[in-house]
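Practice problem: predict the structure.
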Amino acid sequence: MKYANKKDMVNLIDKSAEELHLKINMHYHLMVAMLEQRPDNGNMKELFLPSFYHKESRLKEAIEETIDVLEQTRRAFKSKKLEILRKKLTQLLIKSG
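Answer:
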């Protein structure tokens, strides 16, 4: 069995501590929101799943940008396939809320 060197171990501990800190911070904000009786659906997903929320947000931004480009170039490229793709992406965004 190969042992990790001290630098790798310190990096692993740092990452673990950072993840614990994020979870404690999330728990703190959730408890404050519950005590103030004001948790809303908009921030609950971010409180429970912060990394998922940010990935989802970036994906939505990328899809919106793709739709914009397809919309801007639809007259230059008269492609039925691109039109269908644009419509599918638009429906996907609408359904995902």
